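pipeline/complex-builder :: batch 7 item 3
reading input block
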Amino acid sequence: MNRHLYGARLPLFALAAINASKSRTRMRPWRAGDALQKVHAVTDALVAFGYADIDRGGSVLARFVGWMFAFPAAGRALATTITIVADGGREIWHRRFASAPILTHLEPALVKRELAPAQPAVVERFRWGVRFELGLGERDGALRFEILAMRVGGVPIPRFLWPQLKAEERVQDGRFAFDIEIRLPWSAPLIHYRGWVEPNRLAATGTKTQRRAEVPGSLSCAPPGVA
Amino acid sequence: MAKTLASLDLAFYLLITVQALLGAWDNLWNHELGARLPRKYAARRELALHSARGLLYAPVFLACAWLHVTGALAVLLLALLALELLITLADFVEEDRTRTLSASERVLHTLMALNYGVLLTWLVPMWWLAAAAPSALVWTERGPWSWLLSVFAFGAAAWGVRDGLAAWRLARLPWWQQSEVRIAANAAPRSILVVGATGFLGTAICRRLIERGEQLTVWARDPSKARRMYGPYARVVTALEEIAPSEAFHATVNLAGAPVATRPWTSARKALLVESRVGTTRALVHWLAQQITRPSVLVNASAVGWYGVHPSNAFVEDGPGGDDFPARMCRAWEREACAAEDLGMRVALLRLGLVLGDGGLLARLLLVFRGGLGAPFGGGAQWMPWVHISDVVAVVEQALEDAQMHGAFNVVAPEAATNKKFSAALARNLRRPLWPALPGKLIRIAFGEMALLLVEGQRVVPARLMSIGYRFRFPRLDDALRDLVANRSGLRHE
């Protein structure tokens, strides 16, 4: 299943995060040495196109938070572009729904929770110094996330103030499908976006395996060893 | 005594009236009706000079009409006279450079110069003496002369505005309206799709292809800009879906990409740089896959940034790739283009160095160097692979036809130059001083990560171009800069 999931060859997260040897989440952890890790570490850049539906919460606070974070307006079948740029030890994720962009940074981190050993996770940084530490896991063939911690300007935020996140990504019909729902702490809807993009050509992925093969040069367009 | 002074005053006003009338005649008869300067692209600089002069004359006329000035205001008027003199000298040079003056215009200009000289002998001592006095401005009515000079002031200002607007409009004319387009007879014109046609490179390449008699279709994000730039000489589409799947193109040229060196590389900027290159190329190749008849070749731009930066290594096309942001972006860009090989197309990847032309980075460097403020960046020892835009255009032409051109090609001139050598050559060609190098740290603080374009580089060798026998138009840096600085060859970017 993992292989299939990563068959989409979308760079999901920074390599170190995928390297997680254990996860303390309720979900099945990622295992070191997984084949998907070898196939899937994107080191360059990727642009993928698709479509998405977006619902927005209607409460005053949901509107305010949406405005603060420049969330895109609600709509159906919005042309979607995801641009991912490997940038040092992190990834720039730029999502464009219709013409509205959302930009976040993803990077690997070790999250220490109470007395448990530190566990690898992914840190996603938004504007205004808001950052989430996200645990990764697999359930029912989908990659899922859960919030492990939230900080604003480096200050830890108590759990009761965290937004509620339901996020899963999977491969469907060769497309990379996503379904992300974020609610305010007391369950009022904030934003729900779901859709797919097609990152589906080998030529577009730039996996580490492929890149190693390319490094000797590119006299021909087709990199040596790649059909 | 009083009678003498009155006679002198009368002579002065008569001379200034003669000057104004001659100027009006020159503008109306010679510039507007004779040479028709406001309609000529080549006259745009002359018009700008006329505009500046007209706008300077207006306050001088008004001061002579209504005011008696002393102190700082007299100094200001003297400065205006000096500036006017400089503008007139520049105007003499400019009009000799761009057009042939009629005999009557030459005579008229000489008479005006003589008359102006006499006026200066009047005004300069008067305001020079007044400058020593405390600053003051006294309203002094001079009867009908005041009103007549006011009319002249109004006329000079109005003409200044008119010439200024004409110069501004002409400077914005697209190339095909600047002069007659000469299209070569082409018995078998090819249909070529160009992506990224409105940029600095695209303009030069499309212009050349049009002049060769090829039929261009331009895919542009900004169709109004593309239509303005190419008028009737190219078809503009805003989406590839506007082109029927049955329509056949002989070739595709992909130059799309937001400018790399204009804004700091924030995360949003990096995403845009990648999206505009990698995303556009992906969309193009996806569309090509759906075409019934595909072009035989895709000529795709890339950059020498593919190799990363290195202080000493000389990179040929099969050299190792780098690991900084430009290298990763170029690699992803080339991968997308290479996918067209799977469609049976020949793909030529042009890894461009710093393109020297009337636009791009050189245009910005010229501003600084022309102002006498040029200096190398950082240590100055970093390599600066460069290429004249004429060679880029010629390489694209060859890539469209030559089946040997397959895979990556370094499009840089054979003569390697460090930043110090490049800066010295630019200063020499402009006859300007070269200052000691700007500290690299300062540049890094000012430009952030983008500073690597300035303070770091890589030595790149056009091995494959030379192996297929390409002959560079400008293999030497001095020749290239001399051509661009002196001739400003018509490769102007909008």
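note: Residues 2-171 of chain B form one domain.
queue -> next item
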